[in-house]
Amino acid sequence: EPEVTQTPSHQVTQMGQEVILRCVPISNHLYFYWYRQILGQKVEFLVSFYNNEISEKSEIFDDQFSVERPDGSNFTLKIRSTKLEDSAMYFCASLFGNAGTGELFFGEGSRLTVL
Amino acid sequence: RKEVEQDPGPFNVPEGATVAFNCTYSNSASQSFFWYRQDCRKEPKLLMSVYSSGNEDGRFTAQLNRASQYISLLIRDSKLSDSATYLCVVTTNAGKSTFGDGTTLTVKP
Question: What is the phi-psi region of residue A30: left when phi exceeds 0, alpha when psi lies from -120 to 50, beta otherwise?
Answer without folding.
Answer: alpha
